[in-house]
Amino acid sequence: MAKCPACNYDVRTPLFLNLDAWTHLACPHCKARLEMKPPRSFLLGPLIAPLFVLAQRGRVFEVFAFVFMFVTIFLLLFESLRPKLRLRTKPLPKPAIRLNIDGPSN
Ligand SMILES: [Zn+2]
């Protein structure tokens, strides 16, 4: 469960792997379209590779690199299980075929 940023009601969030459900997620109370905030721990990911290069220089660096990697993975899992929501500002992709229902009829 997460809080809707617009009305503060609880919103049932889909499993983080269910991308299709996420793209259509909306608040059941105020109908605001919602999306997942990207987890902050994603920012730590790119640091893992240079740390493992550094790890070849000694035991201390090696231990540090492994600890850092496990902490990053743990944070990612933790944030994915308790996702934060934000209002979706980007419009949904337009359907390929538009029905001209409102067009002039003559
Ligand atoms: Zn809401």
What does this structure look like?
Strand 1 (2-3) and strand 2 form a beta hairpin. The protein starts with a strand and ends in a 19-residue tail after the last strand. The strands form 2 sheets. Strands 1-2 form a two-stranded antiparallel ribbon. A two-stranded antiparallel ribbon has the order 3-4. It has 3 helices and 4 strands, in the order ββαβααβ. By secondary structure, it is an alpha+beta fold. The radius of gyration is 21 Å and the shape is elongated. Helix 2 runs antiparallel to helix 3 (59-81). Helix content is 34%, strand content 9%. The longest helix has 23 residues, at 59-81. The structure holds zinc ion. Zinc ion (ZN) is lined by residues 4, 6-7, 9, 27, 29-30, 32.
Biggest sheet layout:
2 strands, antiparallel
What proportion of the residues is helical, as a percent range? 25-40%
Strand segment tally: 4
The averaged pLDDT comes out at: 86
Q: Total helix count?
A: 3
Low-confidence stretches: none
Shape verdict:
elongated
The fraction of residues assigned to DSSP E strands is 5-15%
- The strands making up the biggest β-sheet line up spatially as 1-2
Query: What is the radius of gyration computed over CA atoms, rounded to a whole number of angstroms?
Result: 21 Å
Order of helices and strands: EEHEHHE
Catalogue the ligands.
Answer: zinc ion
User: Termini, distance in Å?
Assistant: 51 Å
Q: Which structural class matches the secondary elements?
A: alpha+beta
